Amino acid sequence: MNRVIITGGGGFVGRAILRLLCQQGFDCAVIGRGKYSDLEQQGVKCFRGDIGDRDFVIQHLAGYDTVFHVAAKAGIWGNIQEFWKANVEGTKNVIDGCLVNSIPVLVYTSTPSVVFAGNDIINGNETLPYPEKYLCNYAKTKAEAEKLVLAVDQSSLKTCAIRPHLVWGPGDPHFIPRLLERGRKNDLKIVGDGHNKVDITYIDNVAQAHMLAAKNLFSTFTAAGNAYFIGQERPVKVWEWINAVFEGVGISPVTQKISLSAARTVGFALESFHRVFLPAREPKMTRFLAEQLARSHYFTHQRAQQDFGYSPQITIEDGMEKLISWINK
What we know:
single chain; alpha/beta; 7-stranded parallel sheet; two-stranded parallel sheet; globular
């Protein structure tokens, strides 16, 4: 692994991978839709474009030996066509770009949502099947993309998929800011009994897992063709963790509760309303979100540890300290 290119390299996870690889002396470039002047000033090559454009992708992957495919359309709301173009067609283009340019290694950033069917997952592992139905287009299209990546002929292109769960940490432009905004507005309720446990993954640990997986695909190949759940040293009770964040930044804790069945009903009603009247605006609650907030979903990370030596380098406590410091500065 010498010359590395990262799709979505200007995003939260992409930048973390880029930062780690640059620290280790790799020659790095990024593909993204934005203009990243700060990265260019650091000497990183930035190619601006859409991964939905096959010719663009093939042209700009030329000359690299490793691809981290991080770019995706995320979110719990939106029409299937937009998700499909970015997540499925975009991934097809990246795979084609690797094959056309004889790139030997592709690491795909997936999500545990690809196996979430609305039920509790307790210590789940990689034998969990893809569900027949999904509650949001993001999970559906990420699963389709993951299947494409893992189905590649491993003799010509070594691939694997990393499934980090609930990525958090300093620099997060999405999850943490939205959580804080709703917390400050007192606009959150505990869904369910509040005792459900989930995996979380500190951003630096996500980057570390990607790098270790890529190095494995150049050496022993034990990760080739496989998907891996990634998380911290233990799951957390999600509402306790959210309230710990709030305590650290002076926001009142979430104490009000709503049952899962009620939240599910509200989610269905809001989905129906938004689909007709506000299709471009994400509802405050959806059925997928209700299930995610009320259910336990955490996984064993033994396979990642066994195959390429993953273990979280930043603990939950150290990560929380770094996060609170970043929010309060």
